[in-house]
Amino acid sequence: MPRQGVIVAVLAFSGLVSSFMFTLMVPIQSKLPELLDASRDDTAWVVTSTLLAAAVITPISGRLGDMYGKRRIVLVLLGVMIVGSIIAALSPGIVGVIVGRTLQGAIVGVVPLGISILRDVLHEDRVDSAIALISATLGVGAALGLPISALIAQRSDWHLLFWAAAGLGAVSLVLVVLIVPVSVLRTAGRFDYVGAVGLAVGLIGILLAVSRGNTWGWTSPLTLGTGLGGLAVLAVWGWYELRIAEPLLDLRVAARPAVLLTNIASVAMGFSLFSSNVSYPQMLEQPVATGVGFGLSLLAASFVVAPSGLVMMLLSPVSGRLSRRTGPKLLLVLGAGSLLVAYVFTLLLSTEVWHLLVANVLIGVGIGFGYASMPMLIMRSVPQSETGASNGLNALCRSLGTSVAAAVVGAVLASNSADFNGTAAPTATAFTLSFVLGGAAALVALVVALFIPSSRDPHESHPSLRR
Prior knowledge:
CATH topology of the largest domain: Growth Hormone, Chain: A
Domain Major facilitator superfamily (MFS) profile: 7-457
Largest sheet: 2 strands, antiparallel
Number of domains: 2
CATH superfamily of the largest domain: MFS general substrate transporter like domains
Pfam families: MFS_1
Protein name: Multidrug resistance protein 3
Distance between the termini: 16 Å
Number of helices: 19
Structural class: mainly alpha
CATH class of the largest domain: Mainly Alpha
Helix content: over 70%
Keywords: Membrane, Transmembrane, Transmembrane helix, Transport
Transmembrane segments: 7-28, 43-61, 73-92, 130-154, 160-184, 191-210, 222-242, 254-274, 294-318, 330-348, 354-374, 430-452
């Protein structure tokens, strides 16, 4: 078997590729109606389709990994992403791009599966540090991918963004084939197809309501119908999952205090992170004449945001050492606390570019510690046979937080805007409310983290100790 450090590096690279998919469209998002000759409502699906696909595929791919081999499912997800990237790169119209972006969303399942692979193949002493590194890629890829995407979009044809994604995916796929060992720990049984369909329908309904509520109207029949319908489907799905012998997700395991509270904190932390991703770049790029913005280009603004990703990467070995000494709960508390400090700092000081730079560094500390702690807390509380599905559920909870933040903070910025040269520009009040919401979510994550049990489940042990 290849050296363990090489396996970690390959899975970390796959994580970087995964997170890059979510910054891919940022540089050209506002230009999509012109580029695709479509309405803004239609082009919004270029982003929404990836979000929906990622949310549905992540927990399902985790279960498939537990049953049929995590490495095998990672390769399938990478292959689907590559195909989607090629379809989008070759498509001049909106339909092909939406189809391609939907398929690209499959790669999000690679990160929780990669974390589960680490638990299977690494020595116990190396697991925490490796998990911290893989978790950091969720932020690093997004932070570093933004300036790269902006540079490509400014200097070349926008289709090159998709060719770059396909190339990165192909490199990752080859490395996984050559380096990552075949999964030998499998869960017996049949795949729960009914549960998979029920989960998909319920999640799509809720996420459609959340992501499209601003456009459809929060009280419109369409928003209420999809949102409440999704909740109803998930309620029936939960009832069904508790009554079958081989469920898609073991909800009794998911209800364990450590797992449940970690997932709740994940939703809040995801919200807090994405509040900054929505509000800080807009403030940096908004014209100075509005009295609120700093007038930076997208490329310049991305360099202000990028240090948060570098901080996450630098903190990954620190996170691993802290987890081994004190347990992952402290990491989550420190991470939520750092996010809270970042928003308080921004509310007090946000009149210079360096103020937002400092805030983004604090965001990087918070996410670096917080995202590293979550899979550690989960894997200390679930059976070996449930690691893929449980990590997928945790990733889904983070995605729910970011989705809600995108909708809520977007609505706050849109509803508190003033006309500037014929364009609506968010006011100082809009940004203040956004920072308050981000800080409130960080406070929720902090309080929930304090109640997470600190001890490891006595029934669980690392697989290396059982061989």
